Sequence to fold (566 residues):
Amino acid sequence: MVDHLSILANRDAPSLGNWPFLVLALYLVGLLALGIIGFLKNIRAQDTESDYYLAGRGQGVVVTSLTIMATYFSSFAILSFPGWMYAGGISPMLYALNLPVAAAAIYLLGNRIRRIGRKRGYITPADMLTDYYGNSVFIRGLVALTGALYVIPYVIMQIKGGGLLAKGLFRDVDHVNFLGHQVAMEDFGVGALSLVTMAYVIIGGMRSVAWTDVMQGIILLTAMILSGVAVMYALEGPGNFFSRVSGELDGALLTVPERGDTYTVQGAEIGLPHNAWKILTFCAFASLASIIQPAQWMRFYAARDSATLRRSAIAFSTILPVCFIFGVFLVGLGGRVLYEATVVDGVLFLPDGSKVDQVLIHVIQDYFPQIFGGLGVVLVSLILVAVMAASMSTADSNLHAISAVATRDLYHPLRRNSSEKERTWVGRVVIIIATAFAAWITYRGQEMKGLLDTITAFFFLAMAFSAQLLPVTIDLLFLRKGSRAGAIAGLAAGLLTVCLFPPLVNLLPGIGENALIDGTSHLKSLFDVGMCGIIVNVIVFAVVSSFTRKPHHAHREAFAKDLSSR
Fold:
């Protein structure tokens, strides 16, 4: 997984000169400036938890829309998705269906979460769930664990990806002299980006994170559209694009495959893993999971009013699909026409031996100078920084979220008499610890074989873990039929079910090839893992709730009233 972000380390591409240094310097200065502005705003607003974690619950449409979109789209979207289409043809484009599903969740779930969150002063997801089902340490702990299983792998992998992107951006620089030591560019990038991200999150809280997400989101979305324009230019317009795609690509790449389908490249059989059922169940469940993970949940709380979230949902459902078409569809399929694939040991690569995930970077480096002349070199640097921005915009949001979860869901229950200001400063310390831990993991991962592979296993299943919050969330917001015992049992059962799927089940000691691994591997090849966990979760939740006491009727009615308030 980590290798997919290794940007053209060995590619003989034209030098970018000093532009990467200038563009990156301006970008980082901009981030720090926004952090300081956020800090000054927090001071004026008395630096309470609501100010630090939710920007005073007053974010408008532009900021809310772009911070949700920047958090939703990590560097995975701008690199891995075009690579999937390059290798697997048109079928991964169906993943775009997750965008309207996610937008609908913002409109339907997010708006109700915002209403009751404002009414009752919630900060984290666990605040809402424990308030409804009962202030149980088990519920709060399980919800916090679910959030951590989503957040921590994302932070680690984004920081690691940022270091690799720095290595690609400054490919003419092997080492940096720092305090008398020679530091590899990748390691220096990890350290520098960790410090900058940590700095503006600590000093400015949600305001800084949201405002930097606006800048990062604009850069990222612009980069995706310009990349699609470059492909259209390279293939001489839309008509020639579709003509060459339909005429030159293997027919298997232009259909949605069944499970186990393959096609032939240079005599080698290449698998097509993105079958219809897996894609559709992913779109139905993983997209919802990405919307109710802690960082996004807190953005719902932070929105100014219901109109803000409704308009943000509309912006999400219109802007991101356009960017997906340009930055993923056009780049992936057009890149396959422009760069003939090669096979090494049964694995597909680009012609120069780099990974297929790098196809977008190939496109911009090869064609931007032709399209934009001297400005093209500047834009190449800007887009490489944009991919880095995608990493940072996801990392900062999740660092901010894990700070809130640790402070509200773990520290506050242990220290009931703590003040809001004290908890806010504890949250800042958590950000320092979390960032240092993530950076340490990335460094140690180069020395300890298998460490990053383990983290990667959690990274790929992060949305499956987050999806387990769906049953209790939907019950609380719409049905109000479940009990506290049912919520605990269902959530625990769903999390354990996800752990039974590869690659996590393979990490358990004493587990070899057996029927469990065979069965879950087969299910994983057909359906989204999060969906499988949710099925178990819902069954256990419903059965246990039917035999245990539900919240008092008056309590449920009070929730229903607050959920319908404006």
